[in-house]
Amino acid sequence: MSVFPENFLWGGAIAANQADGAYLEGGKGLTSVDLLPTGKKRFPIMLGQVDSLVPDPNEFYPSHEAIDFYHHYKEDIALFAEMGFKSLRVSIAWARIFPNGNDETPNEDGLQFYDDLFDELRKHSIEPVVTMAHFDVPVHLIEQYGSWRSRELVGFFETYAKTLFTRYKDKVKYWMTFNEINMLLHLPFVGAGLVFKEGDNKKQIQYQAAHHQLVASALAVKACHEISPDAKIGCMLAAGATYPYTCNPDDIFDAMEKDRESFFFIDVQSRGEYPGYAKRFFRDHGLSIEMNDQDEALLKNNTVDYIGFSYYASRATSTDPEVNSTTAGNVFGSIENPYLQKSDWGWTIDPKGFRITANQLYDRYQKPLFVVENGLGAIDTVNEQGEIEDHYRIDYLAKHIEQMGEAIQDGVEIIGYTSWGPIDIVSASTGEMKKRYGFIYVDKDNEGHGSLKRTRKKSFYWYKDVIAANGIYGTHKLV
């Protein structure tokens, strides 16, 4: 017998900025991610070191074409349906609806594209799970307002949210406000379109921007509940338990603080108020967060319905400088964990950490969880027969799905699992295509060359069997 609920939402997850392409087609405006090139300039820009808000013709920007999901979505959705998907997580590009972010009227071509996308999903009985802001702030809002450092964006986002809920209330039942909202603290240009100048108080700017996003999220929750009362709207964080390196109380306290750095956002969105430890952090660091008189009531009265989260790896921390060697790859700082293997990009592989993280979140919030990202980035090769034998991906996902099943038996309520990403897409961190996550191979390389042909991998057929069996796990079933 499967431990997964009968209506469990098996599926996959992609993002507009990593899949769609067509970056200025159909009236879409320029977004922050459209300014992220490949190569050595990419990471400094992600951190907010931005010299220009205009694409450089001498650079290659992978988001501009990505895998051209914008023109291939029917073909791709048919492949997802062949696997038996119950859900597909997608994001809406804000600048496809409001090209400048604050236009007086929405772009009808953009609205129609998502109408068509959602209709195609529903034709195949696939439930859309929609993220409203996934790492793509309209560039006009960065130029004119400094992005989320300005309170003005709260009102612009509320208008955007109301437009979406009104248009798609009969087509979308699962929403999320901000993708991996805690990424604002680690990659501020990616998470919030923040650009820093010399002498800026970065912490002050980041936490003020965080407050604006949290208020905007609460307003979106309020609007969703009023306009589409049958829908569910959640928040989303980049999750992963932090382990203390030793039982030294200093290590344990440090691990707790690093977890709280991420939990802070979800504490506000799920519990409706700033936790005491956050208020102390503001005092200790001399931060003064400007709030409107209505903000506290707004946050308190408009909490999310569920917690969405991504899980790729756990983290470890030590207060001993002699053991503080940072792992490569992941934007979250972590020391080497000698008990775990790593991916080609240096991310720890920790299936048991998935179960720990799910329990940690459910114990803390007592709200349904939705696993909206989990997967392995790896280099895939096509053999002489044109096949992709990605047994390593099957092994990774099988072990993580098994641990998700254990978490459900622990009493954790999980409503769905959308693997990242079910088709090869552009890597958010590196901009590469060779860092592949999909069950479906896309013929494109890091330089943008390729036919974009879609090819089923070995994992395609494996995941199809997993969904058909509703996740019944065990080595004989999953590998």
Automatic annotation (TrEMBL):
One Gene Ontology CC term in the entry: cytosol
PANTHER family to which the protein is assigned, alphabetical: 6-PHOSPHO-BETA-GLUCOSIDASE ASCB-RELATED (PTHR10353:SF122), GLYCOSYL HYDROLASE (PTHR10353)
BP-aspect Gene Ontology terms: carbohydrate catabolic process
Catalytic residue list: E373 (nucleophile)
Family that this chain belongs to: Belongs to the glycosyl hydrolase 1 family.
Keyword Transit peptide found: no
Listed name of the protein: 6-phospho-beta-glucosidase
PROSITE patterns for this protein: GLYCOSYL_HYDROL_F1_1
NCBIfam families documented for this protein: PRK09589.1 (NF007154), PRK09593.1 (NF007158), PRK09852.1 (NF007356)
Segments crossing the lipid bilayer: none
Pfam families associated with the record: Glyco_hydro_1
